[in-house]
């Protein structure tokens, strides 16, 4: 007998028919002899609807009150699933975040979970109940309702699985796993059987929107095994777990891309101590999150070029800061590029194999794609390219690394 946490996303509980389908899955698990704790998202579109409603009432609504509104989405879906389960003859009980003491910090809109009261859930399980938890919400020390950020129900599920020491955390969504790349742009994309926490973290932060990043961080910290799968079919999905030797053997696991990128370069900045500090102080004071940074200096001439990337929303602000500091520094010019993209290769195999970078650059060169910036980490190599070549780059990298083949 196992203890399983199952999380159903918004599309899986989008209407009553789908909620009935979820109930059948939960029942099947229960009938198999396992204990089940279910975490649900709000019905598809509901969180957006609530967000719009609040901002229509007042632009920039009070954050505390906004969380009270947003948390209602999951309140509805959790109780709906519970009454359906009860009507089918199964003992079930729904709980909101604060009722099972999902404690968080007080950062409204993106609160972090600091604790979960496992005893309450266990006492229901002992009495044979199916516990249904409203995802995405918690309570801070003062008893205020908090929400965990978009996609936060994933984190609720993993945090509960960690607190209960569950055998498995199943995340049901509308795709059936993690792919080597986006199947919509590369028909040779292949579903991965397993992926390590670190690779999943890289993929999530590089734009693959399968899991909330925090849920993966949580899973890694507490060793929670996640199974990402579809609620619309029976096929096995992708297991997210500790790295193993088989994963290391593969050179790379996937290609990801992010088109929410822009690039700004300041040329011929006097190469003196403190210029970079001054520049990035101004950038962070404007609340801009910088992704890649490259500085090259020419010793001979005493100048440096400084380039960095930021997301599209921050572009106008960043450009203003760059222009005003360029003037102050007496730099030559500011080059702004709004249409760039980042393509990345991810794989724990990079830790022990060499040659990934050269193969990647070679594949891009073969297509005549120019690389504007390069950055690497232990298990990732990213290149900034012209946005119009994104799909071509992804497909040729996918082919060059033979990711469509079962390794
Ligand atoms: N309902 C929330 C959202 O739409 C949380 C979630 O679905 O995980 O972001
Ligand atoms: Mg989600």
Would you write up a description of this structure?
It is a single chain. This protein is an alpha/beta fold and 407 residues long. The protein folds into 2 domains: 3-174, Acetylglutamate kinase-like (Carbamate kinase), CATH 3.40.1160.10; 255-400, 2-Layer Sandwich (VC0802-like). It has 13 helices and 18 strands. The strands form 4 sheets. The protein has an 8-stranded mixed β-sheet, sandwiched between helices. Strands 14-15-13-16-18-17 form a 6-stranded antiparallel β-sheet. The chain has a two-stranded antiparallel sheet with strand order 4-5. Strand 17 and strand 18 form a beta hairpin. It is globular, with a radius of gyration of 24 Å. The mean pLDDT is 95. Bound molecules: aspartic acid (ASP) and magnesium ion. Magnesium ion (MG) binds at residues 9, 151, 154.
Keywords:
single chain; 407 residues; alpha/beta; Carbamate kinase; VC0802-like; 2 domains; eight-stranded mixed beta sheet; six-stranded antiparallel beta sheet; 36% helix; 27% strand; binds aspartic acid; binds magnesium ion
Residue stretches low in confidence (pLDDT < 50, at least 5 long) are: none
Q: What's the mean pLDDT score? A: 95
CATH architecture of the largest domain: 3-Layer(aba) Sandwich
Give the spatial strand order of the biggest sheet.
3-6-2-1-9-11-12-10
Task: Decide which structural class fits the backbone.
Answer: alpha/beta
Helix content: 25-40%
Gross morphology is globular
CATH class label of the largest domain: Alpha Beta
